[in-house]
Design a protein that fits this description.
Layout: H1 16-40, E1 53-54, E2 58-60, E3 64-66, E4 69-76, E5 81-86, E6 91-95, H2 101-114, H3 145-166, E7 177-179, E8 184-194, H4 207-213, E9 216-224, E10 234-240, E11 257-259, E12 264-268, H5 269-273, H6 278-296, H7 301-304, H8 309-315
Antiparallel strand pairs: 1-2, 2-4, 3-4, 4-5, 5-6, 7-8, 8-9, 9-10, 10-12, 11-12
Helix pairs in contact: 1-3, 3-6
């Protein structure tokens, strides 16, 4: 891996066109791993049991229970390996590189068998149009280790900002977590009130799952690498339920805008990456779009928000 991904003072440059081939195959790999976690974890509200988490070396399932204790599956983007580790002292690894999805899937399940981890998954990828089952996907796939390392370094920085933003809320709030279906890092705040039944659905996802995920009022923000239909790396923010006034609110920074087609505020990653203070620029976007939700949906901000600045000043905390 080159020096770019190891720089600590600058956010990496990310371009959809340069990332798309690598992220396409990595998304499918994360779906294999995420579906394993889904099958072995007890169900958590809003599908929080399926997500992955940003780590100092990549993405992780965190600890997952199984018949002999617990195991963890980690994508390591330093050495570009998938690591499977158990609480009984055994481990296996799978190389990350240019290979077919079917080959990756087969090897992962061979390693699970060696580790005596019994699991079966629904092998059709979720939230992807025209998805091919993992074991049938023999198309050649390219993997650029440097591009993946750059993207992960962006995730590390964004995870830190999302974590700071999350700490300002005393109401129910999600972990900062990575959804492999949409391939986005997200954090969600809740008003505490029930929401009307959600009408949406995604490919290869039961409607009941979507409805449970949006069963409460939310203000959600995240980071997404883009798509062929929208070829830009972006931050997003939306609320559910939503009314017309939400998209009319003024948000920060000035480059942020509301997309009627997507029903959410967007801020291109380049704006944050090129700003004098990327962390504060992103925090402005997160805070102002949350305030747009709170204002237009009449959230009880006094009951839901918190200020620990006096404790931070007295006892210390992370600061750039």
């Amino acid at each position: 891996m080159g020096d770019t991904a190891l720089q600590t003072s600058k956010w990496p440059v990310l371009k959809f066109a340069e990332l798309k081939d690598t992220l396409t195959v990595v998304q499918l790999w994360t779906q294999v791993v995420g579906k394993i976690r889904l099958r072995k974890m007890p169900w958590l509200n809003h599908s929080w049991h399926v997500t992955l988490y940003v780590t100092p070396y990549g993405l992780s399932t965190g600890s997952v229970p199984f018949e002999h204790g617990s195991f963890q599956i980690d994508f390591d983007f330093h050495v570009h390996q998938l690591l499977i580790i158990t609480s009984i002292g055994k481990r296996e690894s799978v190389s990350l590189g240019s290979r077919t999805v079917a080959d990756f899937y087969q090897e992962v399940f061979e390693k699970l068998k060696v580790l005596d981890i019994a699991v079966s998954i629904y092998t059709t990828p979720s939230e992807i149009e025209g998805a091919i089952p993992f074991e049938e996907d023999h198309a050649p796939r390219s993997y650029d280790a440097q591009k993946m390392a750059d993207y992960w370094q962006a995730l590390v920085r964004i995870d830190g900002v999302f974590t700071r933003f999350r700490s300002r809320f005393t109401g129910k709030v999600s972990p900062v977590h990575f959804f492999w279906g949409g391939f986005d890092l997200a954090v969600t705040r809740f008003s505490g009130r029930d929401a009307p039944p959600h009408p949406g659905q995604s490919p290869n996802m039961p409607a009941v799952v979507m409805q449970e995920s949006y069963s409460k009022e939310v203000s959600s923000a995240g980071f997404w690498p883009g798509s062929e239909q929208y070829p830009h790396v972006v931050f997003y923010a939306y609320c559910y339920p939503v009314n017309a006034a939400f998209g009319e609110q003024s948000v920060k920074p000035k480059e942020a805008f509301y997309s009627p087609e997507m029903g959410e505020f967007l801020l291109h990653y380049d704006v944050v990456q090129q700003s004098d203070n990327p962390e504060d620029t992103l925090l402005d976007f997160l805070q102002s779009t949350y305030e747009a939700t709170a204002k237009t949906s009449n959230w009880d901000r006094k009951a839901l928000e918190c200020d620990f600045s006096h404790l931070e000043n007295e006892y210390g905390c992370f600061r750039k």
